[in-house]
Amino acid sequence: MSKPTEHNALQQRFGHRVRKQRRDAKSSGFGRLIIVIYGVFSLSAGVRSVYQLGTEFSAAPFAIILSTISAVIYVIATVALSRTGPGWHRVAWIAVWIEMIGVLAVGLLSVMARDLFPKASVWSHFGAGYGYVPLVLPMIGLIWLWRTRPNHSNG
């Protein structure tokens, strides 16, 4: 009887790991880069929001609430983009549309009513504090979601 290899020992201990094939085009290739960027924005907007809620809320409650909302939307978009299936695709589509509308509305409002924004939000001035990525990201996200929608041949 042969001595079990390290690989066989691990399989005996933990079982066989079956790698599940991803069947959702939105979360592979370029989609993975989009998911990573959304994840980074989830983290950065979330940390900023928590910090501002704890230290600066009384100075700019409206802007800080908007930053918190943007963080939540980024988290929802990140999760939905990373999941497979038509339901998650629909959630991602809705989240990214809300993000697009939010960044345009808050961007315009922050330019026209500066007194509402004594502290900047993530989407203030169309995301200028983040290199305008908050303005461009939902555009790219919506195009990607459109191109990778379920039952759509990319050929």
From TrEMBL:
<feature type="region of interest" description="Disordered">
    <location>
        <begin position="1"/>
        <end position="23"/>
    </location>
</feature>
<feature type="transmembrane region" description="Helical">
    <location>
        <begin position="29"/>
        <end position="47"/>
    </location>
</feature>
<feature type="transmembrane region" description="Helical">
    <location>
        <begin position="93"/>
        <end position="113"/>
    </location>
</feature>
<keyword id="KW-0812">Transmembrane</keyword>
<keyword id="KW-1133">Transmembrane helix</keyword>
<protein>
    <submittedName>
        <fullName>Membrane protein</fullName>
    </submittedName>
</protein>
<feature type="transmembrane region" description="Helical">
    <location>
        <begin position="59"/>
        <end position="81"/>
    </location>
</feature>
<keyword id="KW-0472">Membrane</keyword>
<feature type="compositionally biased region" description="Basic residues">
    <location>
        <begin position="14"/>
        <end position="23"/>
    </location>
</feature>
<feature type="transmembrane region" description="Helical">
    <location>
        <begin position="125"/>
        <end position="146"/>
    </location>
</feature>
